[in-house]
Design goal:
By secondary structure, the chain is α/β, with parallel strands linked by helices. The chain has one domain (2-56). The protein is 31% helix and 25% strand. The chain is built from two helices and three strands, in the order βαβαβ. It has helices at 13-23, 40-49, and strands spanning 2-7, 27-32, 52-56. The protein has a three-stranded parallel beta sheet with strand order 2-1-3, with helices on both faces. α1 (13-23) links the parallel β1 and β2 (27-32).
Length: 67
Amino acid sequence: MNVLHILVDGSREDAARMIDTQSRRHRVEVMDFSGSDVAYPEVVDKIESHDCVISWQAAPDDTDATA
């Protein structure tokens, strides 16, 4: 399975653990949107070419959900 992880506001410990675990059995790609311009046509192409898409974003009052 091809899995795309979209990190909306940068890497997080919980996301990193899941990505590591999934990468043992699946093809995993990560797009980090923090600190860069987003090329939306590229994002759409990647979403369409993956079997599963997971988007990570912290809650407004949460810097790390695992804390």
